[in-house]
Prior knowledge:
This protein is mainly α. Among the domains are: 13-231; 321-432, Cytochrome Bc1 Complex, Chain D, domain 2 (Orthogonal Bundle), CATH 1.10.760; 519-582. It contains 28 helices and 2 strands. Helix 2 runs antiparallel to helix 4 (99-121) and helix 21 packs across helix 23 (494-504). The radius of gyration is 29 Å and the shape is globular. It starts with 12 loop residues before the first helix and ends with a helix.
Amino acid sequence: xxxxxxxxxxxxxxxxxxxxxxxxxxxxxxxxxxxxxxxxxxxxxxxxxxxxxxxxxxxxxxxxxxxxxxxxxxxxxxxxxxxxxxxxxxxxxxxxxxxxxxxxxxxxxxxxxxxxxxxxxxxxxxxxxxxxxxxxxxxxxxxxxxxxxxxxxxxxxxxxxxxxxxxxxxxxxxxxxxxxxxxxxxxxxxxxxxxxxxxxxxxxxxxxxxxxxxxxxxxxxxxxxxxxxxxxxxxxxxxxxxxxxxxxxxxxxxxxxxxxxxxxxxxxxxxxxxxxxxxxxxxxxxxxxxxxxxxxxxxxxxxxxxxxxxxxxxxxxxxxxxxxxxxxxxxxxxxxxxxxxxxxxxxxxxxxxxxxxxxxxxxxxxxxxxxxxxxxxxxxxxxxxxxxxxxxxxxxxxxxxxxxxxxxxxxxxxxxxxxxxxxxxxxxxxxxxxxxxxxxxxxxxxxxxxxxxxxxxxxxxxxxxxxxxxxxxxxxxxxxxxxxxxxxxxxxxxxxxxxxxxxxxxxxxxxxxxxxxxxxxxxxxxxxxxxxxxxxxxxxxxxxxxxxxxxxxxxxxxxxxxxxxxxxxxxxxxxxxxxxxxxxxx
Length: 586
């Protein structure tokens, strides 16, 4: 709120940070592990009196110098540039909080650069003992850079008591400092092995190619062995919120975990088969595939680490939209726009409502969402919502989606944001809901809009409430969190719950529907080829109709071997009713 926003609605600043950061991490970790790799490869050549291995090491040192010093330095500057543009509040806060840590890191980085140049340009021109010491000096300086940066960026995920005290040492040696340091060190070793295999694949000397491939493969294997317990330790020290996101509460993290798991399995297979057991199999294609797997592995880790901080950019300190947590209550009471510096519309009026809503989107939503872009497109996510549904959702989205920051502002500002998204972006009608008084269909529909429509259409839930008694429907509304941990139980009054239950029990006709769907026919079409009716009665004996209906949408989650149910909403509802009737459900 105190900085202007670099607004790129189709791309999103977060995507740019991710692209540059993952590339830089892929290079910078190699700059750490690759330094030690060079020293030990040189020692191997000296110990075996092999000029061919020493020549390989010299060539690899040139490759190492170009990658780490050129690409690493350019991408490092790129990170500072992009984070300063996209999230200047968090960048400034970290610089001011850890200024001496950054200063120490830059000192070690200077030593690292000088040692790298001396190591390469004086290779074979100074006595080997001194040359090895230069290599060890480089590795020490590079690892100390990792040590220092690890402490500073680690606090963003696991601040511990630093979030309250601001103490430098409590922040630096934060709860995830040691597991993160061990994990990143093993990742640096893994990348050194992958880069070594790549250099070996380009060697024209068959003996050297085989020897250095196996040597490099052992590096990767050691890294795999060490990284697994370090990763488990890392997860165990996470606060409860981030740990739940990592363990499956966040769809983004689940997707990143799947990509990472595939990359790990493929890279481990290549390491065992094509570098250690049969190093003759290593060629340029195999080495490049291994490098791609390593890139995906490290990229998925960084993506997970970033996503686990949500809804914060610095956990418990600054929300992802650059609003400080300590200021949230005050801004909600007094209004966001009035306190924001870089907005045109400080006060709301009927004439500027949509324009002010756009500014609210830019300052509160854009940090995570695009409009019409490929990453977290808010236009697509709100396409089926009405104005009243979005207004109601903004008031409770942090409760329903804990990884999202709360909307910070007055109710009028929430309505302005909804007016922009629904009226301007989607071109729908923007109409304020009628007063809550009343006990008819309109009141029930309004309650549905406010409590359900952000995630469900009426057709989506019709099957769960079809033919239910009013008392059973009300009970379902009180136990929604038991049906799915991602839903919140209805929190209105008993009277409002009755109105909503009446509305949900109304029949919903699909456009063009000519007849009632027969649940037995749906069973014959979708289930009978693998299941008898008696089998499913036994399997669903503890489920009521609402739970049967819900579980039909996640069959593969319950039993991975089962194909997903691909029928319509009406067919799912009819099948749920049929299965419930078979076991005498009511």
